[in-house]
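Morning run. Coffee first, then this:
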Amino acid sequence: MTFAALREPRAILWATAGVVTLGFLITLEIAARHYGLPGPMTTQAQEVIFAPKSGPLLYASMALMMVVLTWRQRFIALGAAIGIDIVFVLVRWAVGAKITEGHPFGNGALWVMLGYGVIAVTRRTGRERALLLKGVGLGLLLVAGRKTGDTWLLITSKTRPTVLDEYVATADHALGNPSWLVGRIVRATDPIGTHLLDWVYIQLAVAAVVVSLYQLRHVAVERRFPSHYLVRTFLVIGLVGPAIYMIFPVVGPIFAYGPGAYGTGGLHWAVADLWPDTPPPLNPPHPVPYDDITPRNCMPSLHTAWATAIFIHSRKGPRILRFAGTFWLIATLTATLGFGYHYGVDLIAGVVFTLTIEAALRSHERGWDRSGLQLVAYGTAVFAALLVSYRYLPMEMAKYPWVFGPLLIVAMTSVIYAYVRTTKLWEQKTAPAPQPEPQPELV
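And here it is:
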């Protein structure tokens, strides 16, 4: 690539984004090492050899990378990944290596993505090199986003010794404590309902890849990526969301009012053993000390945010994709509440958070104008107002639920309405003008 090409605005943007991303990963690596644990770069490098934490995620990431390949190249890449995984399984079996956590497969997908990165640098030139590098980068970014999120969660648990769950649980009285209600319903459906919801909750990134593959289905033919697609929103949510965790640390009902989960928390850390049978009492809230292991990852609910993004981007797909997007959103909301991972007010904040980010990304791609600025500013203002009210008005919200409950719903609905109305106007402006039908010539 020539120096003149590097001076083009889009090339400069990509180069800047790459430098910022690398610096961010290095910073998180240093922060994780400070607490005696490997960071995102180390854990990703380990999966070249050791059993990966999520095999399905690695194969989903490889599927994203393959959108730039021809069908013949896709079959070769998939066959190579499966073959490499078989070799890894046989070697582990031969040396007696036992997998205590993670999946026995997925290394092959990572090797194939790295291999195509080498091919792009050594065997491709010009636009073909750039396209293949974008494909590889897209796949690796999805994996890096997961690793970065894990490190962010570690940092929240180490740097925020107290949590604000009492404030959020008190504010949640305005909505009728939905986590307690849904928790009892989900428990009544055990084991079928809980297993299904757990699978949906864990495989959210795979669902995002399915929608993204539909959006990127023409990349191999058109030799370019669309201006906006789901992965971009997904990654920005994962990048910005944990910063809110640092401002508003919350662990969730099953931790603050129950026995905990995934080997963290415990009744000795809980305010009381109440979830999901007994709603929390209405007392003046205060910060509560908690362990240094459990992530403070509730406010906002990023699972709700990601599921909302999947729903939005599935709307222009075929009927089965729209149905799947709706199912994933409903099931994710049910799981976040029913497993005691989130309060109801977390979900409202998550929806507003996603719509604001989505509006900002779409405005950036189409060019900022008055409507885009107003939409992003309004979403940001509503999101900030929600956080402030949860922190400083929880008792008032709990004492007057018939006032604040509807207000919370109206605030969220107003952002939804503003987003839908504004984006429809954008689409009408960018739609091609209808061409007049040819008229028969007069003889």
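The radius of gyration is 24 Å. Good start to the day.
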